[in-house]
């Protein structure tokens, strides 16, 4: 991993990736009135067919050292990552703002899909694995997710940038 201090001109030290991931491991909630100033929102940006950005709020989860999201394959973001899997995910936490660049990989391993279903369910979205074993279903999801089945994607990070919002401050880029 390569670390670049983006705040060196201000005499600030680089941020520590382990501190960032520890903050993510502690958990973020999407439920209103439970984080952020009011809650945490994740924003996924994919690339439209013309190369322009498409950004949408999603219920992403940090789990096992990676970001995960789910969507229907027919949604705009689903079609975009099928054509070009490059994407970014952004989140603002109390202590730092984070943008992760990476590749969205469709996950079809039934064990992993089941594990992520449990992660989302423990966070308050009562989803479950569908009959195929490779996608999710539930009585509801975000309108932008389309109709079930919802497929699970893992963002394989290629780089990340964090900006400290508490303490002495700082900004750092990591290339993985």
Describe the structure.
The chain is of the alpha+beta class. It has helices spanning 17-25, 76-83, 110-122; strands at 2-5, 42-47, 53-58, 61-63, 66-71, 86-92, 96-107, 128-129, 136-137, 151-164, 171-175. It has a single domain, classed as Roll (Pnp Oxidase, Chain A). Helices cover 17% and strands 38% of the residues. The strands form 2 sheets. Strands 1, 2, 3, 4, 5, 6, 7, 10 and 11 form a 9-stranded antiparallel sheet that branches. It is globular and about 55 Å long.
Number of domains: 1
Identify the overall geometry.
globular
What structural class should be given to the helix and strand makeup?
Answer: alpha+beta
Number of strands: 11
CATH class: Mainly Beta
Low-pLDDT windows of residues? none
CATH second-level architecture: Roll
The fraction of residues assigned to DSSP E strands is 35-45%
- Average pLDDT across residues? 92
Instruction: Report the biggest beta sheet as strand number plus sense, adding barrel if it closes.
Output: 9 strands, antiparallel
User: Could you give me the name of the CATH homologous superfamily?
Assistant: Electron Transport, Fmn-binding Protein, Chain A
**Number of separate helices:** 3
Tell me the radius of gyration.
17 Å
CATH topology: Pnp Oxidase, Chain A
Specify the helix fraction band: 10-25%
Distance between the termini: 5 Å
Order of helices and strands: EHEEEEHEEHEEEE
């Amino acid at each position: 991993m390569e670390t670049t201090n983006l705040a060196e001109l201000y005499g600030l030290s680089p941020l520590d990736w382990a501190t960032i991931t520890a903050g993510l491991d502690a958990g973020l909630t999407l439920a209103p009135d439970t984080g952020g100033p009011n809650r945490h929102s994740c924003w996924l940006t994919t690339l439209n067919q013309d190369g322009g950005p498409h950004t949408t709020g999603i219920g992403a989860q940090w789990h096992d050292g990676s970001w995960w999201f789910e969507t229907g394959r027919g949604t705009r973001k689903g079609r975009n990552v099928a054509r070009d899997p490059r994407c970014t995910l952004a989140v603002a936490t109390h202590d730092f703002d984070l943008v992760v660049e990476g590749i969205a990989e469709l996950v079809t391993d039934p064990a992993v899909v089941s594990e992520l279903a449990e992660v989302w369910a423990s966070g308050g979205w009562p989803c479950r694995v569908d009959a195929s074993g490779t996608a999710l279903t539930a009585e509801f999801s975000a309108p932008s997710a389309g109709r079930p089945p919802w497929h699970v994607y893992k963002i394989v990070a290629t780089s990340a940038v964090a900006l400290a919002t508490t303490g002495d401050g700082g900004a750092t880029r990591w290339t993985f």
